[in-house]
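Handout, tutorial session.
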Amino acid sequence: MATKAREKFATQVSSEILSAVRDLARDEGRQLQALVDEALADLIEKRKQGRPRTHVMAAYQASHDKYAPLYKKLAE
């Protein structure tokens, strides 16, 4: 299995969050960086799912522009 390139970065978090993450890492027998990787990957996936795809929104807008009067009547 090929090792993925890793890059260092620095940030700051609250003491409480860092302590809780360190406790999780210790309890799970994992490295802190593994939990940070997992948390960032989860955040990225969550944000991707929360936003509609561009082509879907374009199709919706085109439909709305074309059929707005019909949609209004159907809503009544």
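The second record follows below. Compare its token runs with those of the first.
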Amino acid sequence: MRKLCAAALLCISSASTADVKLYVFDCGRISFDDVSMFSLSNEETDVRQLFVPCYLIEHDAGRLLWDAGLPLDIVGQGKVEVRPGAAMWYDASLLDQMAAMGLAPSDVDFAAFSHMHYDHVGAANAFKGSTILIQASEYVAAFERADDNAFFNQTLYADLNDAERVILNGDHDVFGDGSVEIISAPGHTPGHQTLLLELDNFGPLMLSGDLYHFEASRAMRRVPEFNTDAAETLRSMDKVEAIVAATRATFWIEHNQALADTLKMAPAYYD
């Protein structure tokens, strides 16, 4: 199987032999009146609404959940104020969307989260029977020092404390064939990570976690005020962008609402 190597950081298959499918779920919205916390002025972007996705990857060797959306207790509650000038809403839960496909959390073999902020782990406790793939630095931040990290709500993932887990210290080939690669990209949180997929028909695809929140963030290399390490974030941007360039991957900013409006939602899929 021919390999592509991205800037000596990672090798992936140029054509995976596995049957890989990607399902995209609508796991809510967040709106902001003021985007300055993202180190953008309100004049530099007119975007005020962020999409919140969840993803399910089906591979011949198992299923991987990537990100778990907003907290389940806001489902069906309409707009819920996070703080003055910020709100979130969530119409149909990830679990209900999966159930409509005949899937339960027990059908998911692995769960990995780009990071442990509340809008990425809302349904995490439901996947306590899955094997959790988490960077060592994120595990410490989330389970041992949650009170020291902005936007970590330990009640949303407390059940994972007893889950089977694989502690990562860098990039990780989930199924061992280069088709699903976790890419260590710290800085937004101590153990933030992205996900690189090799899809036979769609081609390489990078799911960017919160490396960027807006297209303007990527274009101007802006680091949000609340990131744990700005310099580390910039290094992660360089690393991920090098991989994207080397593999010619499509790049999805997960929170991009304009992008989400163009995507096929589950039960449709990308392969």
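Points raised in discussion: The chain has one domain: 3-260.
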